[in-house]
Amino acid sequence: MEDHPFGGALTVLDGSVRVNDEAAIASPAMDTLVSTAVFGEETAREEARWLIWEIGQALGVRPASIHDLYRARGRGKTGGFTVPAINVRGMAYDTARAIFRTAVRNNAGAFLLEIARSEIAYTEQRPAEYVAVMLAAALREGFRGPVFIQGDHFQVNSKKFAVDPVAEVNNVKQLAREAIAAGFYNIDVDTSTLVDLSKKTLDEQQRVNYEQAVDIALAIRGLEPEGVTISIGGEIGEVGTENSTVEELQAYMNGFDRTMDNRAPGTEGLSKISVQSGTSHGGVVLPDGTLADVSIDFDTLSTLSKVAREQYGLSGAVQHGASTLPDSAFDNFPKTETAEIHLATNFQTMLYDNAPRELRDEIYKWLRENAKDERKASDTDEQFFYKTRKKALGPFKRRFWDLSPADKERLAKMYDEKFTFLFRQLAVVDTAATVKRFVTAPVQHKPRPNPGLAAVETAPDDADLSD
Length: 467
What we know:
The protein is α/β, with parallel strands linked by helices.
């Protein structure tokens, strides 16, 4: 028996893990283990991450690709729901617990947990940490089934690409390598920043976009673990620009498929396509701190989703920047057969609006100094803080993690209500059976990083968030 927080409920012997008591896994002992996986010294941290992974393998809580479900949707075998892709930025473990708690209560399986290239940096969550935290949250809440972890906006920076295209694309490939090794089996390749609207034809406008997307997609396919076909998404228009058109989608997809066939005949292509239909990342904040009204073009979404399915076998269109929409908008997504929507900023807003006043004041003081270069002369304080406070999530990660039980309890109730509302509006309630029908999450053991688990941090007795 090794030194770990589960006592006799878990046996670790010769690099293998056996769960003797599943109930003990969904206990405060998991809080202790995941804290070590995030904040422990290197040896204990790597051991804790390995242990979380292997417990998940034993209990069927494994990272998986949503590719086969999406392709089944493209064949008309399933539909009628919109998959929420939730960017878990701040207070990641507790936020993810609320998501999985909601999934268990609603028998939901079709949802993604994601983090973008930019978010990995400013939230200080590298892929290995992120996967460990998401799996630990699932295990803590007694969730069973595939866990869809996604790399959102693995994006090519257009300015860096203009200076050195090979180096910038290689940066995205290297991130994909790190993410896939950690358990990200869903990746949105965003080369839409390279669309050149100055060109005369749509194919010419999209050419660099689809050619670089193919290059990155082939690198991803070469990194796939055995038994996994990673779900890869493409993007035809940068979020916040003009609405996408059918002709743009066709130009991109025809070019992508043609280029893929020329470079690697028979290679699996995309499973979805991100489009623009009226939103912007984070919403548009007004001088008083409120958000401007957003109008989604659902006819565009419906048409693009239909074309994506019928002409290219994809799951449909993906809508970014959706979390700041009014509540009345969300049930329109499954009605229009939108494949997936991305939700991020509103959960961050909930966290900041309900954090202790003294912590929020400390963060805003930090932003005045550390994010001052991002302030426009016309920005009010409300606009400045709204746009920049995401940059404090990494430096203040431990402070959010260590919020009092009362603060966490209050946030948990609000998150539970919000996620329940979204799961119901997006019609992913009772999708666990659909996921089970189409998705296989193969067992993947990882080599043990260290000979034994070092002493883990002991969580206080009141650290548990009551369900």
